[in-house]
Amino acid sequence: MLTQIYEISSPEEARVISAIGVDHVGILVGNGEFPREQPVAAAATIAAAIAPPAKFSALFLTADTGLVEAWARALRPAIIHLGASPDLLGPAATAALKRALPGCAIMRSVPVSDEASLAIARSYDGIADWLLLDSHRPQDRQIGALGVTHDWRISRRIVEAVGVPVILAGGLGPGNVAEAIQAVRPAGVDSKTRTDQDGSHAKDIERVRRFHAAARAAVA
Ligand SMILES: O=C(O)c1ccccc1NCC(=O)[C@H](O)[C@H](O)COP(=O)(O)O
């Protein structure tokens, strides 16, 4: 069971979290259009502290694929993670980015809310290399970081319907990740809010350690 942690905001966090064995170390990158985005130069400094085999996942919330392409060319992350709402950034634009950036895997966030989520997920199958199933507020331009779970029965149906590997996100932490894995059977699990320090976006390293261990133990 693969683990992924957001949002890493310092070289020290990147170093310690990759040493724990987390597979994907996520950094939020942008120009300040969304809160807490790291400019490209700062993201490069943080990413340089990620220790292999952990991989650098660069999350872009903007729907401007020209910006995403330029920033990804500068950073060369292992994974380009697209977090814009699907009505703003669709499968054709995702496919164009994949063609423009060979060598980078594409992870596409999919909002999980109702039956429509199945069709959204299928529309990226065979285009994205990973799907990230996440909670979403309908009015938001971006997907995720809400700290709440969604209907795992829909996520399970998506896992069964698509060919690409799926990472489950949304309100996961050390206390519920094993139950989520049993319910959804994803290839990986993601955590942001519930592995943060209380009242802060800095990571709680002990919570990250427990999340990672619980996820790995759930399939041992
Ligand atoms: O990492 C962020 O700060 C972030 C901000 C806005 C949207 C998504 C963000 N993170 C990307 C992810 O895929 C999260 O890890 C995911 O949304 C999980 O969120 P949470 O429910 O808070 O665990």
UniProtKB/TrEMBL annotation:
<dbReference type="InterPro" id="IPR011060">
    <property type="entry name" value="RibuloseP-bd_barrel"/>
</dbReference>
<keyword id="KW-0822">Tryptophan biosynthesis</keyword>
<dbReference type="Pfam" id="PF00697">
    <property type="entry name" value="PRAI"/>
</dbReference>
<dbReference type="InterPro" id="IPR001240">
    <property type="entry name" value="PRAI_dom"/>
</dbReference>
<comment type="similarity">
    <text>Belongs to the TrpF family.</text>
</comment>
<dbReference type="GO" id="GO:0000162">
    <property type="term" value="P:L-tryptophan biosynthetic process"/>
</dbReference>
<dbReference type="GO" id="GO:0004640">
    <property type="term" value="F:phosphoribosylanthranilate isomerase activity"/>
</dbReference>
<dbReference type="InterPro" id="IPR013785">
    <property type="entry name" value="Aldolase_TIM"/>
</dbReference>
<comment type="pathway">
    <text>Amino-acid biosynthesis; L-tryptophan biosynthesis; L-tryptophan from chorismate: step 3/5.</text>
</comment>
<feature type="domain" description="N-(5'phosphoribosyl) anthranilate isomerase (PRAI)">
    <location>
        <begin position="97"/>
        <end position="211"/>
    </location>
</feature>
<protein>
    <recommendedName>
        <fullName>N-(5'-phosphoribosyl)anthranilate isomerase</fullName>
        <ecNumber>5.3.1.24</ecNumber>
    </recommendedName>
</protein>
<keyword id="KW-0057">Aromatic amino acid biosynthesis</keyword>
<keyword id="KW-0413">Isomerase</keyword>
<keyword id="KW-0028">Amino-acid biosynthesis</keyword>
<dbReference type="InterPro" id="IPR044643">
    <property type="entry name" value="TrpF_fam"/>
</dbReference>
